[in-house]
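Entry 12.
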Amino acid sequence: MFSYAQNFEDVMLARIFAGQQDGFYVDVGAAHPSDLSVTRHFYDLGWRGINIEPVPANFKLFAKQRPGDTNLNCAVGFPEGPATFFEVTGNTALSTFDADRASELEASGEHIESYPVEIRRLDSILQQYAAGKAIDFLKVDAEGLEDQILRSVDLGKWRPKVLLIEAVRPIDAFPGWGTFNAGDLGNWGRWEPYVLDSGYVFAHFDGLNRYYLHRDFAFLADRLSIPPGVFDFIMPSVMETIGAEVRRAESAVVERLAKSQTDATISSELASISSRLGAIEAKLSVAGEETLRQLTWALEEKEAFIQRQEKELSAYRQRTFHPDRAMKRVIGRLRDILRPRLGDLRQHPATPPVAAAVDRIVPALSPAPVISLVTPSFNQGHFLGRTIASVLDQNYPALEYFVQDGGSTDDTLEVLQRYSTRLTGWQSAPDNGQSDAINKGFARARGEIMGWLNSDDILLPGSLHSVADYFNRHPDVDVVYGHRLLIDDNDQMIGRWIMPAHDDAVLSWADYVPQETLFWRRRIWERVGSQVDESFRFAMDWDLLLRFRAAGAKFARLPRLIGAFRIHEDQKTSSEMADTGQREMARLRARVLGRVPDDREIRRATTLYLIKHVMADFGWRIQRRLTARHWGKAAIADGS
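Predicted 3D structure (tokens):
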């Protein structure tokens, strides 16, 4: 499903009302008909309800975009009558009736406009617009005024099945996880007793909202027992516009193909469809050289796609023509093209590793700068041999390669002894973790180019030559990285990350740079202190990238596969993400942004980058097929 809500509230409600095609909602503090909307998903399903929004500009949007709903430009509470409302023009979600709160916001730099707004009891509104209706859910989001709103309605009379109530103080009142105290966060102590006394049971807290089920529906509580996840099949709402275009293209395809009478007509119709799909992709792209190159690749793919469709349709015509089957292939292909892969660690069933044909090219080097590579290791002997072999098999002529082991007790020592004559150096002794091991390894390194490769990851053929060649040809570049493959325990491919052109700004919000593909010049390393920050156990690579950026480093993304990231049961990224990883990422965001943004802000800030990634991934697939054809081999299925 497409999620529009800021904290996936619509996903959680959709679990409760699974399969229910119509219903009735009441949204107090509705804000916007689509952006961060809890009800947009249900409106699209055919539900209807009441949207209550005091900001006039937002109310007008509801009136225009939600004609099937009852839209009210007022506020909820008591006593009834006009009251002064303080609108925060730059972020209307922070608007308030509290004069002291408005003064605080104005002092922090927000622009405030005040004007009278009518306040009505929720009982009065429901009596006028919802009499005789069963309310499926009531959502309340009022920036701290939830108590006044809830006490203006007789919950025992109206009995919404679900109450969804924002239950935390505004974000600027949150002290941060480093000094977190639950008492500093919540405001539900004032109104929860009233809710519970009205026949409701607490079901879920998502960190922002509290969910309550009427006791008659308490049996549904298990549907809220876990947070949103992969099995909810969530798509970001930014993809809804794309989906709408796809659905329009789908209708056109079915209608036109059904009317086609000859192969020539079919060919013409497919060309017209291709043009429409091209327009969809154009809306996703950003002007510039990179976009033009990607669109060129897209056109080549479309030509090949049309030719395949013509052949298949011709074969169908000899039997019985089924336009719906062709349509399913078209739409399936589009949805695959538009699916972001960054952040997804298991994208498809395991298949043999695939390297783009361009990766066969190993540039000649003159000169060959010394590359210093460090592998930190601890109890991963099962993978370490493959990691070391992937480096040594590069046959790079000027390589320093150190393995710094933390005193492993498995078969790591046997692996190291087997490769000892080909390694520049290795050591196995207790350390203070991965960052300490990396620093110890680099303390012995002398190379002009540096990087580290974890003991469960591998380099892909020709990577070191390509990295060195790029640095030779671009003396102004300090840091490079490239595309990654995702592999399983058995070196089988389970996904890929095809990176768009580098974006300095996105680094403040998320780290998408594949660490095993990352290399940098010694000069930038020395400029940031010649060490990895050992206070980080998980996000030390993101911290290093941010320090590089702060020191004025110039970054570049190499348009080739450089490394492979291994996913396995003991893999650190998977096991530590929820605990150590989240804390360290919040720490870095607070350092760079001055605060810890919520998931909604992060999604917004990274959306354009992910769209660029989608286009880059599409272009990579086309390039791989074209180069595979050049080498006289058919493209290998990549699980996508």
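Annotation: The CA atoms of residues 448 and 522 lie 5 Å apart. The longest strand covers residues 555-566.
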